[in-house]
Known about the structure:
Layout: E1 2-5, E2 22-23, E3 36-39, H1 45-52, E4 57-58, E5 67-69, E6 74-78, H2 87-95, E7 98-102, H3 106-113, H4 124-136, E8 139-146, E9 152-161, E10 164-174, H5 177-191, E11 196-200, H6 204-208, E12 212-214, H7 216-226, E13 249-255, H8 265-278, E14 289-290
Amino acid sequence: xxxxxxxxxxxxxxxxxxxxxxxxxxxxxxxxxxxxxxxxxxxxxxxxxxxxxxxxxxxxxxxxxxxxxxxxxxxxxxxxxxxxxxxxxxxxxxxxxxxxxxxxxxxxxxxxxxxxxxxxxxxxxxxxxxxxxxxxxxxxxxxxxxxxxxxxxxxxxxxxxxxxxxxxxxxxxxxxxxxxxxxxxxxxxxxxxxxxxxxxxxxxxxxxxxxxxxxxxxxxxxxxxxxxxxxxxxxxxxxxxxxxxxxxxxxxxxxxxxxxxxxxxxxxxxxxxxxxxxxxxxxxxxxxxxx
Length: 291
């Protein structure tokens, strides 16, 4: 049984936080496979919103080394048409013993997304920034629960800004749980009139879910248009109910950010940061400029 359980909307309209004290460079200047735009800044809600509104997202290497990125191309799931998913995923959505909720366990979802053996960019400071955005009504999660054990077995979280949803990370503890979270989110974003789901970097996993690479210039134009539209994040749209069967367990977590040729994202990021710094002259600003 795949049952959608709505919760009451605490905040119908997100609350705008104080303006960031940082100003970001143009996202078009991104360097390397991750598209590093600048280094530094903070994770205050105003800073995070300012970045995502410009097509930029943080990818911390450590609490003291924080690249802000805008890759080219960008992985995007377009939502102008109903999302198309594979037959196997549609079957999983029908028969897996999952219950779907929204914003009932945001902090647990982001903690599970950061719990990975190869290391994580989800630092304590970044997690705190997203939790504050959740409290303000900007950040949201979709949770997948096993109806037999009542355990949280999958989920996804990100930011809803205008008609754009910026996906950050997802995880699964049972087979297909993250896919079901992604598909459930995408279906409801489409119904609510969102234009696209930003998945950041292409991976075979995201390609299998319908994401496609979009050139950075076009993506930034899409962002500029979408963030100024008015949309309400869909917490109360119901999914169809059907019969259930047990799922086979799996203990792994995944990310929307790519691994290149078997190299971990954090290892590759450190290498790219070095190239980014060496490509800038000493007179150029490589940190977010204070406003």
